[in-house]
Structure prediction request, 516 residues.
Amino acid sequence: MKKHILSVDDEQDIRELLQESLSMRGFRVSTAANPEEARKIAKADRPDLIILDFQIEESDGFVLIDEFKKLYPTIPLMLLTGAVFGKGAVREVIEKKVSSYLDKTASLSQIVDEIHRLIGDPEAEATKK
Amino acid sequence: MKENIEKRVVGLFFLMLVILVGVAWLAANTIRKSTDKSAWVNQTHEVILGANSAASLLHAGDASMSAYLLTGDRRDQENYRTAYRAMASQLVVSVDTTKLNPYHKDFLSLTNLIGQHINFTRSLVQAREQGGEDAARQLALSHPDGSSTADIDLLVRQINEHQDNVLKQRDAEAVIQAKETTRVIYAGVVVNFALLLFASVLIRDDVKSRRIAATAMAEANAQLEAKVQERTAELVKSNQSLKKENLERRWSYQALDHQFRYNQLIVNAISEMVFVISKALNVSRVNPSVTHVTEWEAQDLISQSIERVLQIPADGPANPILTALNEGRELQERPAAVVTKSGASLPVRFNLVPLRDDNKVVGGVVTVRPWMGPPPKPAGPAASGPH
Prediction:
């Protein structure tokens, strides 16, 4: 059974790129453009990881993070945002709220490595078997 | 090579077929001859039987006639007549049967002799009927050779001997022919067997070579398949790698674009005027606040000197922005005036932050905000920079 990742981002290009890239690496990826869509998907098909953007239409990442943490306390959350937070208090606060925080300027391989750290690497597990 | 073997095998089987047909023809011919000979032998036996039968009937007839001559009994007369009639019939049949045979003349001679004998017996019978028993005896004694029975018997024996000799000769010929036929059949069988053996060897060699070729082809196919699979795996891997690389590039581009747009939004959101300038003080970028305050369009300002809109009071021989950029230092809260497109002069304060690339100053960012205090001193010569 492939691990399920839910990506929430209001930018279509980002959603498509993440879906394509993570699917290639053995994950099953669902995407949502807004919080409402994300809630529906998470309810219907519980994800193993939720990737969130900070800036989302109709809401913001903080609200959604708090909501998802309350609804699904065991699911790791990754904040992937283009709103660059420098090293300092803000970043420290954010990192405490989520399991992982990455800038969108991070490379895809860095993002994938971080996902592997959080929920494992399907390709490596398949090789072991 | 394979075509040659096939041709040879086909040729061998054709040769075997020819030999088989030859042997079969020879066997059939021999059987036909044997059948013909059998008919001839039967006929020969009939001839012998006919001659012997004729002689026996003659002797039987003679015996009855002798009895008749002695007794005059009519039954004896009837008996010899019956025997002679039967003999005559037998002779007619034998003469007719041997019409086309070389010993036909022997039967003609026998018929002639028997005819003479019958004539003599007739004369004896007439003598007996006319002169009685004595007359018949005298006639018989007067013609000691009249009956010629001995000649008839001799001729019959000759015919029998002759037929026996012919039969023996034919038997010998049949034995020789049977032997020859047997030899030919055995030879045909042996030759066919040898040819079959040779064809088997050819077929076995051909099958062996085909099997070796098939094995070699299977091995070559397996190797090719393995190479194709290996190459396909490499291509898939390479393709995956390229895909990942492409995704990584698209991601980077997207991230940069996003970051650029985000920064642009932030810059554009600033109410202060922002000028990005080169080291020669030419404007490379302005924010919307600049166009809003100065009434100049961005394209009117890009590549023009910042001194066109920002007049700085003279405090030295050179523009302080130029000096600060050359020295790589910042300027804070410096007084200046912004000249609008309509010619109005607005008092402002400005900051300068040098832009560095690899620790080398390549330009600067000038942020300008309105100043509500006293206007700055008029711009000195230093303010008239390059346009």
Q: What stands out?
A: Chain B touches chain A through 14 residues (CB under 8 Å).
